[in-house]
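User: Run a structure prediction on this.
Assistant: Running it now.
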Amino acid sequence: MASSSSHKKDINWRGVDLNLLIAFSALMETQSVTKAANKLAIGQSAMSHNLSRLRQLLNDPLFERQGHHMIPTQKALELSVTVENILNLVTNELLQPSSFEPECFNGTFKIGLTDYAELLFAPAIFDAIHGLAPNSHLSFFNVDRHNYQAVFNEQQLDVVIGSMTNMGKEISSQYLYTEDHVCLFDSKATGLQAPITLAQYSQHPHALVSPDGQLITQVDNQLKHHALERQVAVGSRNFLTIRHLLKGRDLLCVVSRLMAQLDLFHDDLTQCPAPVDIADFDIRLLWLHRNATHPRNEWLRQLVAKTVIGQAKKLKQK
């Protein structure tokens, strides 16, 4: 390793210029300083200067004039294949935008989702990706609006799906759809029928989906304006826990409309508009701005966005 490092230090890297290799290639092709200069659209004096720098860099005449032709030396002939390989490598691998072929990809896609987004979209996303990239692997990461930026960087996520706001400059996003809410309950256990009144809403115990563990929300502030209050009997950050509790119990719960439409349950709960104003929320697709032009990331974003929008539309039509 020390020897390799020593050799690198011995090379005059400041004298190495890609344009010199392009000039060498043109001279090999045309065997004329004038024609090589015309080919590269530079002056003849500039081409002569490039040849002089090449000779100094490679310590060889490289081309000798014979009449109107510049005849390559033996070293020039030996170097010609290497130079062409270098130029082809730079052109095809470094400067040309790479493409992504999903059918050949066997790496891992990392997608961050909130509990809400994972429950609604994970199966559809898996099917869409596996159908086009059958050799790939898919890893879902649980995120929320408080930790998603840290998880983005720590886990090197490709994209995140959720109702995120106040994103920094390092994060780009795409709007997917807007979600609203419904009130969900067991008619037999609660004795209620849709639609319900504000008084009924406040009189029955509530189950609350609470990502941050808080049992007081904007709803409670609205009820105060009507001289009403509600009893939150149970709260959980997990929608599935709350959903299981509703069957057979005197509980009301306000949930996103798409959550209420899921096929996971067949317990015939009743849903209706909530008698209080609850703000809608936007679902967005997020990615790191620095990865925006990467072909794999672009392909994944397009597929995930199409899948999520399609799944949301399908659930809304139920």
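Residues 74-95 form the longest helix (22 residues).
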